[in-house]
# Entry
Amino acid sequence: MKQSLWHLGQLLAIVLIVGSIHLVTILNWNYIFDTTILLQLYAVNFGMAISGYVMIRFAYWLKSQVEGFVFLLGSFIKFGVLYGLFLANETAAIHDSKQAFLHLFIPYAICLIWEIATLSKILNQAPENSV
# Structure
């Protein structure tokens, strides 16, 4: 439990720091991008990263040895949700601009990097006989 709270605290810190830098950069460059969309992107990515982490922890707790597959499934679902919410329809929040896609990719990438690092920590702490 203590380790899970530590990991989730790390995610929160990373999202707040990178999100703040991202937001300040957009505001300082006077880039025309709706900041509420940016906040939604970070919130959705944060929520999905937490749910993916919970699923990975649950798989580890069951000693099912499928944590990597749970991670892959979570990544596919996460990308599908982001695509559906922000890119797919005509009223999508982000349109076909390369710069706008970059704003979608930054929160996705930082949460994905955190998930990979956390998964590797979880798998490295597994006992020899369960791997």
About this structure: The mean pLDDT is 82. The chain has one domain: 2-126.
